[in-house]
Design brief:
The structure is a single chain. By secondary structure, the protein is α+β, with helices and mostly antiparallel strands. It is built from 20 helices and 23 strands. Strands 6-5-9-8-7 form a five-stranded antiparallel sheet, sandwiched between helices. The protein has a five-stranded antiparallel sheet with strand order 11-10-14-13-12, sandwiched between helices. The chain has a five-stranded antiparallel sheet with strand order 16-15-19-18-17. β17 and β18 form a beta hairpin. The longest helix has 47 residues.
């Protein structure tokens, strides 16, 4: 509401400010009366003395009698005939004689309502001439106009008081919400700011804003151009505006504000602009933080090594990340036209059990069978939960890990059920989000499960406190520095400290998150590889034992490739034949076999390679480096791959 408009248009001056006592005196002098009283009626029983000359008032019972006669009489002048009555309300020494004559003129407003009366009195008997009556009526009309002005002024002052109370209440209420008001008078180009508006601009309360300087508070560029356009459209096209803009306060602070305004027109011409002004800087900061967090989590999900699907409870897919697209082979648009029956084997008896459990508990995790676009089925670990979005719609999140390779490895290694279960449990990736310096800002719940720390202990901590001292420098040089340069690194292996103080071997890949060419954060995906490292160590130990036994055997030993070339020879064989190790590695077994014995081993070797026999033994001659024939007893066995083929 534009409160200031009413204030400006009210007339603060009035003829009612004149002294009515002077008018009463003029009436007496003109008519030759001893006294006169002007009464102003506020209500039927309430009146006040507006002006007088001579006696200061009239006795109450006389006033009541006159008022009753005025109400019912249509005469312009009333001259009643009453018994001698003391009408003086003053002390007797001020009115020693009794009035013998009085006359009253009713004062009526435009609606013919009696608002007062003019009463003249004299101590001697009088008779009013026609001229005197005319003069008395003229005075009555003049006094009526003065009383009307007085009434208007009183009403105006009441309006102002109410108005000020409303403005005070308005500004007090808006101050709590940091909402100020403003008003621009177009004819005078005077601009008004409420105290709250001044506080937002960080100017003193006695600051007097001007249109040109007020516009310059808006940040140069988009904000200033926008407010100028809004004002122009309001003045020229009657358009209201409600915009969020940036201003630079008098103290140099850059803040967000909400400016609302509209125009007021008179005879087709804009005469006023008014509106509200609100500091929304904190809301904007919260909005940006929320958007950042949302973008952060979207980035984590989109770039996760784990496949993520967003579905409705009926199974229809509404979102899929990159890992899901890669895992199942469908395009992004194809995914959105599918339901879970196209990517998960619905004939799997474990599926209805998991769905029922999720319905009861809200979340579930278990193994199922996935289906790729080409129809290939593979083992997956599914984690799924129900949640409600901002619109109150129930949706389902699904995290899917391809565990087929782990399954295959466990079968190939023919490991125990416990090892199989351990590999399956360790297949879940640990996804983390970091500041550029490495500080954790987000970790998945699997972090706590794998390493024993609570999420609160991890968030805000430095990851280098968990790295093995011998690995810190290598991680910094080979992974961290490269990531800060925007390079996606290959997996790096290192040791990570658990809460109990022990270390686990893990493998991590890192992806830099870029904004405008600058790395703003890091996304890592970590997998525990403790079992794999232990197996690698065991295999290395076994190979070391084999090498020692091979090299120090008391008989000649050789490892021959499928093409007959010597791959590895021991010291004893070199001594028997007189060749060095390097010389023998350049030969095949045919090169040093006596010509007459070459056909001896053709058939037995064929049987050995085809798996008809496990080993062969035969006597043959080798040719030494010096050219001598050396009879030997040869034993040969096959080294096979897991599928039985010759290695």
């Amino acid at each position: 509401m534009n409160f200031t408009k009413g204030i400006k248009k009210k007339n603060t001056g009035s003829r009612s400010d004149c002294d009515l006592n002077m008018i009463a005196e003029m009436v007496c002098l003109t008519l030759g009366m001893s006294s006169a009283s002007i009464l102003h009626f506020h209500d039927r029983e309430l009146e006040e003395l507006a002006g007088h000359f001579g006696v200061p008032g009239i006795a109450p019972h006389i006033k009541k009698a006159l008022y009753t006669e005025l109400e019912h009489s249509k005469k312009n002048i009333i001259i009643p005939t009453l018994a001698q009555t003391d009408i003086s309300t003053s002390v007797k020494e001020k009115a020693p004689s009794h009035p013998s004559f009085y006359a009253a003129v009713p004062l009526k407003d435009q609606n013919r309502k009696t608002i007062g009366m003019l009463c003249v009195m004299d101590n001697s008997k009088k008779k009013l001439s026609a001229q005197h009556k005319k003069v008395l009526l003229k005075y009555g009309q003049h006094i009526t106009r003065m009383l009307m002005d007085k009434i208007k002024n009183l009403e105006h002052h009441d309006d102002l008081r109410i108005l000020k109370e409303q403005i005070t209440l308005f500004e007090l209420t808006n101050k709590q919400a940091k909402i100020g008001s403003w008003h621009l008078d177009l004819p005078t180009k005077k601009l008004y700011w409420s105290n709250t508006t001044k506080a937002i601009h960080e100017v003193p309360t006695d600051y007097k804003p001007e249109l040109e300087t007020a516009i310059k508070f808006y940040k140069a560029g988009e904000s200033r151009e926008k407010i100028e356009k809004c004002i122009e459209n309001a003045i020229l096209h009657h358009k209201k505006f409600d915009v969020e803009l940036q201003v630079i306060t008098a103290k140099g602070k850059e803040i967000w504000v909400r400016a609302r305004g509209q125009a007021e027109f008179e005879n087709g011409e804009c005469i006023h602009l008014y509106g509200t002004f609100q500091n929304i800087n904190l809301d904007k900061i919260k909005e940006k933080k929320l958007a950042f967090k949302e973008n952060q989590f979207r980035s984590i999900i989109e770039n996760s090594l784990t496949a993520h699907l967003l579905t409705k409870p009926d199974g229809s897919i509404i979102q899929a990340n990159k890992a899901a697209i890669k895992m199942f082979g469908f395009g992004k648009k194809e995914f959105l036209s599918l339901d879970r029956g196209k990517v998960i084997d619905t004939s799997d008896p474990r599926l209805p059990i998991l769905l029922e459990k999720r319905k009861i508990e809200g979340k579930v995790e278990g193994e199922l069978i996935g289906i790729r676009k080409n129809g290939q089925k593979f083992a997956i670990l599914l984690s799924s939960s129900l949640f409600m979005d901002l619109d109150g719609v129930i949706k389902t999140s699904m995290s899917i890990i391809d565990i087929s390779s782990e399954k295959q490895k466990s079968q190939e290694l023919a490991n125990s059920e416990q090892l199989y279960r351990s590999i399956t449990e360790n297949s879940s990736d640990i996804v983390c989000h970091h500041k550029p310096d490495g500080t954790y800002t987000y970790v998945t719940p699997s972090f706590s499960y794998k390493f024993g720390y609570t999420l609160d202990e991890v968030i805000g901590s430095d990851p280098y406190t968990y790295f093995h001292p011998d690995d810190k420098r290598r991680i910094k040089e080979e992974a961290h520095k490269k990531s800060l340069q925007g390079v996606e690194i290959e997996p790096i292996k290192y040791r990570f400290k658990k809460k109990d103080g022990s270390f686990l071997w893990v493998e991590t890949i890192s992806k830099p998150i870029m904004e405008s060419g600058t790395v703003t954060s890091l996304l890592t995906s970590t997998r525990v590889i403790q079992k794999r490292v232990e197996l690698e160590k065991e295999l290395a130990h076994t190979l070391d034992i084999f090498r020692t036994s091979f090299n120090n055997a008391p008989i000649g030993m050789v490892l021959v490739g499928p093409d007959g070339k010597f791959l590895r020879v021991n010291n004893n064989l070199c001594t028997l034949l007189g060749y060095t190790e390097q010389e023998l590695k350049q030969c095949t077994f045919s090169d040093i076999t006596h010509p007459k014995d070459l056909k001896k081993h053709v058939l037995p070797l064929g049987q050995l390679i085809n798996g008809e026999v496990k080993s062969i033994q035969l006597e043959k001659r080798y040719i030494t480096k010096e050219g001598n024939a050396l009879w030997v007893n040869l034993s040969v066995s096959k080294v096979s791959n897991l599928d039985g083929s010759l290695r």
